[in-house]
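Lecture notes, part 5. Sequence design as translation. It can be helpful to think of inverse folding as translation between two languages: the language of shapes and the language of residues. The source text, in structure tokens, appears below.
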């Protein structure tokens, strides 16, 4: 039997071992913080699409055929971002909405922004790629222990 302060060889050790108790208490908060932050920021972004009748300008410039479905496209993006963001924050249908938003970010990354290069300041794909990766991670992990999905006992 090993003593509690012995760390297995494949584990890291803290520079300040006195922080061990703090980390043990707060690590479970890391997933809800990430999920809620991503969800609420996504919802605020989607809120700006409520009541709009035309599709997002850049998407319509790249896909002129989408002009005929501008209102429907805007509605789908609004639901994905606003409703989906609120659901991700609450942990309800988390995987479904995170996957839908990750797909949206993939389209934006590779179809809209890729040609501008990496840097966001030059309208590149840096920012939407980061969002897409975070949403993809949430889709893989689900709502986690502090979510409505867990309360309901079912996930999509």
């Amino acid at each position: 039997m090993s003593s509690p302060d012995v760390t297995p060889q494949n584990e890291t050790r803290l520079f300040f071992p006195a922080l061990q108790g703090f980390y043990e208490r707060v690590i479970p908060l890391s997933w809800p913080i990430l999920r809620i932050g991503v969800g609420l920021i996504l919802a605020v972004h989607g809120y700006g699409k409520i009541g709009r009748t035309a599709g997002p300008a850049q998407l319509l410039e790249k896909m002129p055929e989408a002009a005929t479905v501008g209102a429907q496209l805007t509605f789908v993006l609004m639901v994905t971002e606003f409703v989906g963001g609120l659901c991700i924050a609450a942990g309800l249908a988390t995987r479904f909405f995170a996957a839908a938003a990750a797909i949206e970010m993939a389209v934006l990354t590779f179809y809209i922004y890729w040609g501008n290069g990496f840097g966001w300041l030059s309208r590149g794909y840096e920012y939407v790629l980061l969002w897409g990766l975070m949403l993809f991670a949430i889709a893989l992990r689900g709502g986690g222990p502090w979510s409505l999905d867990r309360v309901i006992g079912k996930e999509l």
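The translated text above is only one of many valid answers, since several sequences can fold into similar shapes. The chain is about 60% helix and 0% strand.
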